[in-house]
Structures are given as C-alpha cells and as structure tokens.
Amino acid sequence: MFALSIAFIIWRLQNEGPAAFQALFNHAKTLYFLAALVLLPINLAIEAKKWQLLCRPFQNLSMNTATKAITAGSAYSMFTPNRIGDGLGRFHFTPKNKIPAAGYAFAMSSSAQFISTLLFGCLGFGLIKTFGQHEPTWWLAEQKWILALLLGFSIFVVFCYFSSYFLPIIQRTRFLRFLHKHTAAIQGYSLSQKTTVLLLSLLRYLVFSSQFILLLMGFHELSIFDAFARINLIYLFSTLIPTLALAELGLRESLSLVLLENMGLSDLEIFSSAFLLWVINLMLPAIYGHFTLLQKPRLS
Questions:
Q1: What is the pTM of this model?
Q2: Considering its fold, how many domains does the chain have in total?
Q3: Which domain does 263 fall in, by range?
Q4: N or C: which end of the chain has fewer CB within 10 A?
Q5: Which pLDDT does position 247 carry in this prediction?
Q6: What confidence tens digit (pLDDT) does each residue in 57-79 have?
Q7: In this structure, which long-range contacts are made by residues 27-30, counting pairs with CB atoms below 8 Å and at least 24 apart in sequence?
Q8: Is residue 73 part of a domain?
Q9: According to the model, what pLDDT value does residue 215 have?
Q10: Is residue 12 part of a domain?
Q11: What is the predicted pLDDT for the residue at 241?
C-alpha cells in the first residue's frame, strides 16, 4: 500500500520540480499555517483528557503524564498497522499489573475516535452531494448505497461502544481469564463517561479537520463546506484502509489528490497541505514522544 501510494504521488507530481515548490510557498499565506500549528496543542490536550478520564477507574493520571503517554503512543504507532502500537506507548506510563485494564481503556478511546470518523464520513457523503462540484455521475449514483451501508455499520459500532454486553463475555471466556480480575475496574464506565469521551473525540475530529482546511486555505481560496465534505471522506477511507502510520505519509496524500482534485486546487497544493498535516499531527508528537520514552523509565 505504501509503495502504491508513493508511486501514485510520483506520477501525479512528475512535472513538478523544486522551483515549483519554492514558488508555491513564496505565495502561501503563512498565517493559515501558523493557525494550523497552534491547533496542535489543543488536539493533544483533547486526546490527553480522554486518556485521563478512561484511566481514572484504575490509575490517577495528571494531564502532564497523560500528554506524555499519548505522545509516546505516537512514537510507537509510527511503525505498527493502523497505529495499534499507540497503546504500547501509552502503557509505558501504566503499572504492569494495570496494563490489561489500560488495554480496555485504549480500546474505548480508539472506538470513540473511530465512531467520530464514521459519523463525519456519513456527513461527508451528504455534504458532497450538496456542495460538491463536477462530481462523476457514477459517483453520485452510488453514494446513496454507500451511505446506507455506512450508516448501518455506524449504528452497529455505536451500539457496541455504549453496550456493556461484552464484559460478561470476558468474564465467561476461559482464554480471557487474565482479564477477569480487571473487569471490576473497567465496568465502572457510566453512560455519561462514555458520552463525554465520544464528545471529546468528535471535538478532536473537528480540530484536525480544521487544521487540514487551514493548510489548504494557505495555498488557495476554497469553499469550506466542500472542503470539509471531502476531508471527511479522506479520513474515512484512510481509516478503513489498513496501513502503517508512517505509510500514511503516502496514503493520505494519494487520497487527497483524488478527492480534492475537483476543487480547483493544483496537485502541488493538495500534496503540500496533506504533507504538512502529517508533519504537524504525527511527526512532531512522535519526535517528542521518543524523547519522552528516553527520559522516562517504564513503570513496574
């Protein structure tokens, strides 16, 4: 997937050279880039707050420690499929006897963020039909079926997230015996707590979507609603396609080139925006996370 994505990007940008990049950034609006960068601490703070809330039944974390945990997770996740290593980095700040409970908390956090992507993906299909320009006929015709399947899947995932049905299954399953003693700690998530975590996930989604829009606006004037609709689909497809976080450097840019090309943006503007977003939201936290891991011994 990474190789195919990079090959597609090279093909689309084969006529662009260093001079084109230099000219693009010379005429860019730096204020929009700074605004996207300023949103990074907000993005991290929301995710840290989610982790702090989910860990509260079994571990008291300060916001500072929770922030270090999620950046350590970013460092681990760079080289694992669909960022599943994110949990490994976070567990670095969890006592070993509490890691099974933290694993369930991480699953809750990831599920809430996944639900946000699904819900905004549904919204994206609706918005692109209203605000989209020059869409292929076959794409418009198939949207209602895709949207129906996506809505059905979203409802199922939301039910699984809010349901407490899975804890009794854990307690009855023999090969999950190592989790039995931790169910008391994790079954305490109330409906209000789950709702709070989901709302924080929705808010975080709006933050990093706004970052993408700001970066695009730094290069070109555009319709915000049209851009928001397409960005929702980019995040949806990039989430559903298994890849490494490091490989998102190619995948998200490839999807952006396909889904944003009808907005009047050049390939160079689209690629540069998606690449800068990857640098801000993935590379910078991962670099900080590596330093955090080097300075902090693993909790025993």
A1: 0.86
A2: 1
A3: 29-295
A4: C
A5: 53
A6: 888 999 999 999 999 999 888 77
A7: 28/218, 28/219, 29/217, 29/218, 29/219, 30/218
A8: yes
A9: 95
A10: no
A11: 77
Cβ(217)–Cβ(180) below 8 Å: no
Identify residue 26 by its one-letter amino acid code.
N
- Write 287-291 long-range contacts (CB < 8 A, 24+): 287/75, 288/71, 288/74, 289/68, 289/71, 289/72, 289/73, 289/74, 289/75, 289/76, 289/89, 290/75
Residue 33 within any structural domain of the chain: yes
Name every residue whose Cβ is closer than 8 Å to that of residue 182 and which is 6 or more positions away in sequence. Answer: 58, 98, 100, 101, 104
Strand partners, 244: 81
Any domain includes 8: no
Q: Using alpha carbons, select from 231, 179, 168 the residue that is nearest to residue 205.
A: 231
| pLDDT of the residue at 197 | 95
pLDDT at 18: 82
Cα angle 58, 64, 69 (rounded to 5 degrees) comes to 60
Q: Which residues contact 145 (CB under 8 A, 6 or more apart)?
A: none
